[in-house]
Amino acid sequence: MTQTTQNARTETKTTLVIGGTGKTGRRVAERLAARGLPVRIGSRNADVPFVWEDPATWEGALEGVGAVYVTYYPDLAFPGAAEAVGAFAKAAVAGGARRLVLLSGRGEEGARISEDKLKESGADWTVVRASWFNQNFSESFFLEPVLAGELALPTGDSVEAFLDADDIADVAVAALTDPKHIGKTYELSGPRLLSYGDVADELSKATGRTIAYIPVTKDAYRAVLAENGLPVEFADLFGMVLDGRNAHLVHGVEEALGRKPRDFSEFARDAAASGVWNV
Description:
Layout: H1 3-12, E1 14-18, H2 23-34, E2 39-42, H3 58-62, E3 65-70, H4 81-94, E4 99-105, H5 109-119, E5 124-130, H6 143-148, E6 150-153, E7 159-160, H7 165-177, E8 185-187, E9 194-195, H8 196-207, E10 212-215, H9 218-227, H10 233-241, H11 252-257, H12 264-274
Parallel strand pairs: 1-2, 1-3, 3-4, 4-5, 5-8, 6-10
Antiparallel strand pairs: 7-9
Helix pairs in contact: 2-7, 4-5, 8-12, 9-10
């Protein structure tokens, strides 16, 4: 069978999008559906449920599937993630889903173990490494702090090349539908480095309100996470990936798509126009 023929057959099958209601998964599912490709959402509340902690749900979610966008919650750096990803990848390939695209973490050693486990399955794999999303400020962890006008985070003076979820989704969809991306690892970043103070300034400009950045200790942030029912390990993850290891630009968006990534200021302008930060 030629690679082109295999790819055509994959596209006629369903693509399972794990985390298909999340920041990147929702966008991937929407893009695939817009192309007329069959999509199944992988989540615990889906019609056919998918639960990482319950392998008994995997077989049903994988039925008739030819490709999978693999995301792991809360993070691939967490204990048990690599084992779960490896076991799932083997089950997927055994069930006929050879094309696996993994959303991985840029600069995370624990995530690399998960990448290796997925590759060992014999899948036609692509790895997409990303770090902090622009949309964390509009759809997730940092939405409430932005609305409150105060970003209190254990990030010090660190800088990050904040990345747009739409760029991640575009790369993932390309990898799911075009065989030229098989066997490649794409490291993604935005087009410039920003400190969290810079982010607060950008958000202030976009919203017309003062958004302040207040550095706090990891212990203080851990207490905030616990109070809000979020994994306290996120505080340690901050310390790990914001120690300078990702304080440089990479060019995976250009490599995969042939265009520049979206800038944070453009994201902030559009998010503000949507009304998500109205108070």
